[in-house]
Amino acid sequence: MTTNSLGRLEKVDLRNFWSSEAGDFTPWLAQDENISLLGEAVGLELEVEAQEKSVGPFRADILCKDTSTDQWVLIENQLERTDHVHLGQLLTYGAGLNAVTIVWIAAKFTEEHRAALDWLNEITDERFNFFGLEVELWRIGDSNAAPKFNIISKPNEWTRSVSGAAKNAGQAELSEGKQTQRQFWIGFKEYLSSIETPISATKPLPQHWMNLQLGRSGTKLTAVASFYNNQLQTYDIGEIRAQVDLFDKDAKSFYALLLAQKDEIEQEIHENLTWHNPESANACRIYLSMQANLNEQNNWTDYYNWLNVKLKLLRNTFRERVRQIDPSDIDNGPQAN
């Protein structure tokens, strides 16, 4: 019996590929395909907003948006062992930029600095997240070197859940409806984890929506499970929705540009969408909906399947469209009606 020979992994010195942090590593990391690798490692979909972002007299390496929440993510990197200077910079830049997620990348983390990030994750509430990652380069034989990000420190969601429960002790308990919605999203997250799908759930919360990633700041996919039916305007029977949300300052312009493609989009997905553009809000949504009764838990798996199918459909249809909109399209595009 013949066997195929296997290659041997060889670790490559970072300095053989990146001579300097500011001149080589930061520009490399800021490229779309490489920031995506980092995003996969930490479970976020990142969009680069700026490199060498000024914070008073200092400059932060990379500033990103988490496209599922539209919140700031600060990235600071070094090609050596972690040091106190960079730790101080992280906190200074994070405060100056109002970042809620901070990512520290280094060739090697000391035990003291790993412990410092763990401590920050423990003492801050769930709005703030600190990640520590070691970057490595590996190759097999004469192949190109491949980057690998290893998480050294990350938020401990279980600890935070326990801490949050303790903080809420003595306060009013969640209503029955909110408890049902949280259980619905817990089940949805477990369902998505059990199947092959590009849809990645976020933290289950006691609310009628779950924000998901679409690929550009100011936009997001949203899964909705509500006791209220928007179409029928009644609480007698609820609904679930798979929707594209457009928000922030360019929401109306994004909506108008997509609305101009309405016929093409609906032919592509073979369904009629609901296009909602309220005059009183700088936010728009485009969605598919289905009647649902959240109190009938025997039907939840059917609801999860429907949401997964429709969210994938919207993701495949809108993801590249919103990512390809450029500023000139926004300035010169049609106006939303």
From TrEMBL:
<dbReference type="InterPro" id="IPR025364">
    <property type="entry name" value="DUF4268"/>
</dbReference>
<protein>
    <recommendedName>
        <fullName>DUF4268 domain-containing protein</fullName>
    </recommendedName>
</protein>
<feature type="domain" description="DUF4268">
    <location>
        <begin position="181"/>
        <end position="321"/>
    </location>
</feature>
<dbReference type="Pfam" id="PF14088">
    <property type="entry name" value="DUF4268"/>
</dbReference>
<dbReference type="GO" id="GO:0003676">
    <property type="term" value="F:nucleic acid binding"/>
</dbReference>
<dbReference type="InterPro" id="IPR011856">
    <property type="entry name" value="tRNA_endonuc-like_dom_sf"/>
</dbReference>
